[in-house]
Specification:
binds NADP nicotinamide-adenine-dinucleotide phosphate, FAD/NAD(P)-binding domain, alpha/beta, elongated, binds flavin-adenine dinucleotide, 7 helices, about 325 residues
């Protein structure tokens, strides 16, 4: 049977931003509810080594996120397995509906919904998703032991995915639409030095080639970005790593956005265009998009929610009765 959960602070999302917000809000005695969403732990659960989380020279992404969840639980955060389908910010208390059928009422909301992988948008990509087309080398790399694969993209994710895939594949071809990568220099160095990696510059993927029986990828048709010349490349797997879109669907018609669909916050704060609603992490940040910056913004959002609630208790209190 569906329930109504009342809280001072509803935190939506369980990446570094959400868990950090939960730790701070719980320690501020706000008794927050954190709704995890369909990817508990967020994006770091689909990567391997994280080498830039302060205090850990190297830590596995999934392990780091389990530790963050444990930390939030240890201080007493109420963590709920559910996915928010709709959020009504037009009246107070704010209300949200979960996939479970449960309702959530909150005086303040912290949006920490992060971002999702982008796809090329090709019909052949859609048809072969899960049959040789993937956006997660960590999840699917193992299936390509001794085979040739391609990675599409030129950012940190693409380079990390390519390097990771060299653990399994006999050859990894990185295809980038320009003639220079935007990935960090240290990652680029590792990529260039890896004998299993070949780079194809200035090319876009025009079509993913495949068989239907059994459904599988057999190659890529790539096009030179400047000359328009096309050629086919034989590969068994195609890993799309071209970035992420902010998960701002819930609020796109209710809050001010920036740079496409990122949630706008007042510079230097986590305050959105609506008092009492805060945003933290990749859902608002089109620049840094890191675990540590997301965690930092989660902290800011919780501290600002605490201040907001202290100044607005009389009008908005709906704390658990
Ligand atoms: P996310 O981690 O994206 O989490 C979003 C959360 O929101 C998820 O839990 C999801 O379930 C939840 N959610 C979404 N919609 C809803 C909804 N409607 N209802 C409820 N919950 C919802 N950064 C680094 O600093 N170092 C690295 O080494 C590094 N490696 C990376 C490797 C890969 C492959 C990728 C993709 C990213 C990497 N990043 C790295 C970036 C880092 O993962 C992100 O910056 C960070 O995870 C963003 O944190 P977040 O809390 O904003 O959101
Ligand atoms: P990103 O930095 O936005 O890079 C996306 C790449 O894909 C770019 O090279 C882009 O090309 C290319 N691209 C975009 N759309 C394309 C299309 N339609 N067709 C072909 N190529 C396309 O995304 P990301 O690599 O996923 O990284 C996201 C964030 O997470 C970044 O802030 C990154 O620093 C962070 N991250 C950090 C680490 C780490 O610290 N170790 C690891 C992974 C991710 P152009 O270059 O031409 O734009």
């Amino acid at each position: 049977m569906s329930q109504t959960h009342k809280t001072k602070v509803l935190i939506i999302g369980s990446g570094p931003a959400g868990y950090t917000a939960a730790v701070y809000a719980t320690r501020a005695m706000l008794e927050p509810i954190l709704v995890q969403g369909i990817q508990p732990g967020g994006q770091l659960t689909i990567t391997t080594e994280v080498e830039n989380w302060p205090g850990d020279t190297e830590v596995q992404g999934p392990e780091l996120m389990v530790r963050m969840e444990e930390h939030a639980r240890a201080v007493g955060a109420n963590i709920i397995t559910d996915h928010i389908l709709s959020l009504d910010l037009s009246k107070r208390p704010f209300t949200a509906t979960g996939d479970s059928g449960d309702l959530y009422e909150a005086d303040a909301v912290i949006l920490a919904t992060g971002a999702q992988a982008k796809w090329l948008g090709l019909p052949s990509e859609e048809r072969l998703k899960g049959f040789g087309v993937s956006a997660c080398a960590t999840c699917d790399g193992f299936f390509y032991r001794g085979k040739e694969v391609a990675v599409i993209g030129g950012g940190n994710t693409a380079v990390e995915e390519a390097l990771f895939l060299t653990n399994f594949a006999s050859k990894v071809t990185l295809i980038h639409r320009r003639d220079s990568l935007r990935a960090e220099k240290i990652l680029q160095k590792r990529l260039f030095e890896n004998p299993k990696v070949e780079l194809i510059w200035d090319h876009v993927v025009e079509e993913i080639l495949g068989d239907d029986n059994p459904k599988s990828v057999t190659g890529l048709r790539i096009k030179h970005a400047k000359t328009g010349e096309t050629r086919d490349l034989s590969v068994h797997g195609a890993f799309v790593a071209i970035g992420h879109s902010p998960a701002s669907e819930l609020v796109k018609d209710q809050l001010e956005l920036h740079s496409g669909s990122y949630v706008w916050v007042k510079p230097g704060t986590a305050q959105t265009s609506l008092p009492g609603v805060f945003a933290a992490g990749d859902v608002t940040d089109d620049v840094y998009r890191q675990a540590v910056t997301s965690a930092g913004m989660g902290c800011m959002a919780a501290l600002e929610a605490e201040k907001f609630l202290a100044e607005n208790t009389a009008e908005t209190a709906v704390a658990a009765e």
